[in-house]
Each structure stands twice: as structure tokens, then as C-alpha cells.
Amino acid sequence: xxxxxxxxxxxxxxxxxxxxxxxxxxxxxxxxxxxxxxxxxxxxxxxxxxxxxxxxxxxxxxxxxxxxxxxxxxxxxxxxxxxxxxxxxxxxxxxxxxxxxxxxxxxxxxxxxxxxxxx
Amino acid sequence: xxxxxxxxxxxxxxxxxxxxxxxxxxxxxxxxxxxxxxxxxxxxxxxxxxxxxxxxxxxxxxxxxxxxxxxxxxxxxxxxxxxxxxxxxxxxxxxxxxxxxxxxxxxxxxxxxxxxxxx
DNA sequence: CAACTCGTACGATAGACATCGTAGTACGGG
DNA sequence: CCCGTACTACGATGTCTATCGTACGAGTTG
Lengths: 119, 119
What we know:
Largest interface: A-B, 26 and 26 residues
Structural class of chain A: mainly alpha
Oligomer: homodimer
Strand order of the largest sheet of chain A: 1-3-2
Low-confidence stretches of chain A: 1-9
Number of domains of chain A: 1
Helix content of chain A: 40-55%
Distance between the termini of chain A: 39 Å
CATH architecture of chain A: Orthogonal Bundle
């Protein structure tokens, strides 16, 4: 299935180059509750998750929109793998540009979730 | 008589209680370039600065707006001192709620400023 | 090929936000 | 007591954003 090629998908998605990632855009991307939740799950998983894995309380159109915001801000990397689109955190790039930032935000999110009664 | 009250000012500004500060609101407040710049200057100073100390490329109305966003997000504390309004970072509260977050953001901002040619 | 799944594109809409200008309020000093 | 300084309040405006619905495109599989 799909031979052994690296998912020779022809559909490519535009990602900002590492040097183009702006702190303000990253913070803005993370300031939305749904997007922050997505990032938390991606971080917890550590690997790649398909868009459909997330059960967000919005329509698919809106989900697409949020994933694009995350991708264009440089927070996640998206690649097509067959019919699914896989999402992964750009940990390497973010840690290189802003050391400790992602971990602090994730820790803060976890802390707040615990404080407010995580469910 | 406010006896030994600190600057017995009668004008009080509404601040969120420590437990009401939301991570998303903080991130959103910091995602604006002007507000991030203000926070950086406040952090660098360490103390309190008046609104008029900042030379932002916007009108005073807009400046007022940005300071209110920062205050309502719980990032800064504002108090009237005579005719001036002094602004200070809520380091204690932020560090307690989200340890390391503020420092990471400040470090990231400094890093990006250096990378993009700070002037 | 046809059907199905996954996700996109586009258009619409309501709300939020950054910005301004003008008019007004609070304080302190001459 | 009047004026200047510092900041606010309000209204207007253009832009951005989150959301939806419907129609479509790309892959996989029967």
C-alpha cells in the first residue's frame, strides 16, 4: 500500500521557514482555547495525529481554519498521508527559536486545567 | 482618612483577582507587538512606569486601550498616582500561576528582537 | 468506475479588535 | 480659581477572526 515511498503525496502545504516564525504569531495562535487544546494533545502524543483524531466542538470547516492558523504561525507541521492530514508539533524549530517557551506554555496550560477542574 | 494609605487616590481600577487570570487572555495580551513591547520595558525597568513614559506610535486613545487590555488580562497592575497612572508587571501573580512563562516569553522576545535587528 | 472518507475552498455573517478624533474628568500648581 | 497635564469615555470605522453551510477535490477501496 502506497509502496514504500515517503507518501509521495503531491499536495504540499505552505509552511513558514524557521526564520520566518514570529513570536507574536505563535502567541496569538496559542491564545485560542481550541488551538491550545490541540497543541496540548499533540505535545502529549509526541507524534503525528490526524485532523479527524480531534473531537472539537466545531464544524469541520472551522477545524480546518484553526489548523491552518497553527500551521501558518509555525506551531505545527502538516503533511498529507493518503486521505488523512497528519499534524505534528514543530518542537525542534520552536525550541531553537524560543528555548523553553513551548514547555512553559504547556506547563501553564496543564496547571490551569488542573486548577480549573480538568475534565 | 486613609491614614498611611499609599497615595490615597480615590480612583480605583478593576483588576482580575489572581485566581481569575486566564492563560489564553495573557497570551492574547502578549500577542500584540505594541503590548509586548510595553511588557518588555516594564520587565526591564522592574518598577512602575507612567503611561506617558512610553512613546508608542499610536494616539493616546489607542495607548489607553492597550494598557487596559494588559490590565484586564492580569498582566499589569495600574494605579493612579496623582495625575499620572503608574504601570507595573504582575510578576508575583504570573510567576505563581504560570511559573517560568513570563521569563520564557521575555527571553523569546529579546531573542527575536536581536535576531531581527533590534534598534 | 462508484462510493466513501477526509479535508478544502468559498461565501456569508456576526462579533471582536486596533485605530482614530473629540470631548470630558481628575489632579496639581501657579 | 483657573489652567495645564494626564488620562478616559464615547462613537466611528475598517479590518480581522471564529463560525457555519454547501459544494468540491484528492485518495482508498469495493
